[in-house]
Structures are given as structure tokens and as C-alpha cells.
Specification:
Length: about 400
Amino acid sequence: MAFDPNAATARYIDSLGPAALQKAHDYTVGKEWMLLWSLLVAALVTWLIVRSGLLDTLDAKFAERRRNLKAFVISLVYFIISALLTLPWSLYADYFREKSYGRTSQPLGDWLGQWALALTISAVIGALFLMGVYWLMRRTGKNWWLWSGALTAAALAFFMLLQPVLIEPLFNKYAPVPPGQVRDAVVAMAGRAGIPAKKVYMFNGSRQSNNFTANAGGVGSTARVAISDVAFKSATLDEVRAVTGHEIGHYVLKHTWWGILVYAIGAIILFWIADRTFPRFAKAFGSTAGLADPRGIAVLLFMISLFGLVTLPISNSFSRTLESQADMYSLQTENRPDALSTSLVKTAEYRYPRPTKIEEIVFYDHPSVERRVHTAMEWKAAHPEPPTP
């Protein structure tokens, strides 16, 4: 009987069972609604900060000649106050809801500690970036939005370079993969991608999540492959090879650089829109700040949140394209369609595998699991394994 990709795909998805599929559906749809609730929370926090006059008071304490320091301090204070006001929502959305669906086993105290660490890092980096944006507003005149796009690209590239060596080790422990079949396989795969054996790591990803993950990233001397310890508890060797092949595909195909280019263009468009519409948003929130005034940062950041939600179908379509290319790289280099499919089915526990077409376009940053498994089964049909002698 000829192999049927459609029937094989259906068997893989149906193997989850009705209860698991319903749970995945409820979890996924809830996450989609939370995008709207998050925007409403951001609007409320923006209104509270503007109405409090805190940033206006802080702005008045700085001399006119200390503009860069003023921009940095006001931005830093904004990020901290905003995060504290949003903390109740973050606790529900990122911790208690995840725990209720079995997606994490992390203790609350550890989650709060990592939240505080992430806030510290993001607040400092974000304040430095916005200090640069406000400097460009003053120095480059009406073309500031174009220069700010270039600054965004440079900041993303710099962050990509530092993240594997300075930031990620603050949240997880990275160690060489223990000797054995997994290490031998991943080292060989990394070597074909130009990543040395000493840059193949295992990290304690189970600290934050019960999901099997891996990643390959960095640039030059910071390039590395990292596999979550969850893989050693719940994945077969073939699944590790298939998933790691996908992640190495992102690295080989230079998807990070494409991402930087696209998000820099997005930043240019956003800043151009802000240049023309900021006064209307400021008036809506009751702010008297101008666009180039750091005390208007709360309004500007809300505009970024709104822009991100409105353009979600575009950014998700771009992301799905890259994910499809990485899947194909794994199939072409590892040729393990069944292992890729079984590993993808595991992700269906927290990403409903059978969304409607519109739902997938708008909300999914990966192709649906059903679509990805079907691609793998089509590959299997076109590349049958040779008969065993």
C-alpha cells in the first residue's frame, strides 16, 4: 500500500487524544485573548504613570544641558515603575496560568528572582537604547526616525553577540553535553555548521519550562548549540537530532540576521508613524510632553505595544517562513521525518495543532503542528528509506 501523508499526519495529531487536544485548544485560545488584555493593561499602566506626574517631576530636576542623563534616568525609572505596576498581570499570565496547564514546575520564589533579574537587565539596556533615540531626535532633525532604525539594527546585533556569553548564563547553567550518543551526534551536526565541539552545551531549561527546547545562535566566537536538559528526560536520540537540526538550520541560514533587518525596517516604520501621530496619543492619555521629550516615554512605549499588536500578522508570517525553512533544513540534512513529527506533536500540548487558517495567519509565529507534520510526511513519501538488506 502506498504511503499516504494525509493519513499519517492525521494519525500523529490524533495520537494526542481528544482530552489533550481540547486542553491545547483552550490554552492556545486563551493566549490569543491575552494579547488584547495585555494591550489594555499597557494602556492602563500608561494612563496611571502619565496622570501621576512622576516623570514630569523627575524631568524638572535635571538641568537643560544634561539631556542624555535625563533621558537615561527617566527611561530607567519608567521601565521599573511600569514593570511593578504590571507585575500582578505578569504573575497570572506568565506564572500561575502556565503552572495550571503544567507548562512549568518552577517555584514562585525562583520565578520572582528571575523576573527581577530580567527587569534589571532589560531596564538598563532599554534606557541606554532610548537615550540614543532621544539623542538622535535632537541631532538628526526630521530624519531621526531613519537613523533610529539604524540604531535598532546595531542594538539588536550587539545584543545577539552578547546574549549567549553574558546574559543567558545568568538565568541557566550551561555545561558540556555529557559523553554519549547524544553528544557524538550533536557535535557532528554542529561541526558541519562550523560550530566547534567545545561550543555544544546542555542547559537546565527545566528550571523554567517543561518544554523540550534547543537553540543555535551567536556570532563568530560566541556561536554555540545548546540543548535543554528536558531533552535527556523525554526525547529520543532521533528526536534530538531532528530538533537540533532545525535549530542549526536557523544558524546556517542566517535567520537572525534576516530578523535584524526586518525588525529594523519595522522600527523605521514605527518611528515614522510616531513622528506624525504622537501628539494625538499624548493628548488621549493627558500628557503635555512632545515626542522628543523623555517624559513622554510612557506614551511612546504604548504606541510600540499597539504597533506590535496591529502588525502581528506580518511579523508572524515572516517568522513562520523562517521556521518552515529550518524544518526543511532538518529534513534535508538529518532525514528524520518521523522523529521531527513526534517531537512536534509534543509541542502541540501547548500550541493547538489544528487552528483555522485565519487564526494561524494572525496568531501563530510557527506553522501549525499539523502543517509541519504534513510537510515532514510529504518529505517521507518523496524520500522513502531503502529496504533493509
